[in-house]
Amino acid sequence: MITVKNLSKIYRTDAAETVALDNVSFTIKKGEFVAIMGPSGSGKSTLMHILGALDTPTSGSYSLDGKELNKLTDDELAVIRNQKIGFIFQSYNLLPRTSALKNVMLPMIYAGVPKEKRIPTAEKYLKEVGLGDRINHLSNQLSGGQQQRVAIARALVMNPAIILADEPTGNLATAQSEEIMAILTKLHKEGRTILMITHEPEVAKYAQRIIHIKDGKLI
Amino acid sequence: MPSELFILKMENLSELITSSFEALSLNKTRTALATLGIIIGIAAVITLISLGQASQKAVENQIQSLGSNLLTVISGSFRPGDFRSASGTATTLSLDDAKAILSSSKITGVKNVSAEIQRREAVTAGRKSTNTTVIGVLPAYKEIHSVDLDVGEFISESDNSALSKVAVLGPTTASDLFGGSSAVGKSIRINKIAFTVIGVMTSKGGVGFGGNQDDTILIPLSTAQKQLFGVTYVGSVSIEVADAKLMDNVRDQVGYLLLSRHKISEPANADFTIFSQQDVLSTISQVTGTFTALLSGIAAISLLVGGIGIMNIMLVTVVERTREIGLRKALGATKKAVVSQFLIESVILTIAGGFIGMILGTTLSFVISKLINLPFTLNFGSIALAIGVSGGIGILFGWYPARKAANLQPIEALRYE
Question: Is the pTM of this model over 0.90?
Answer without folding.
Answer: no
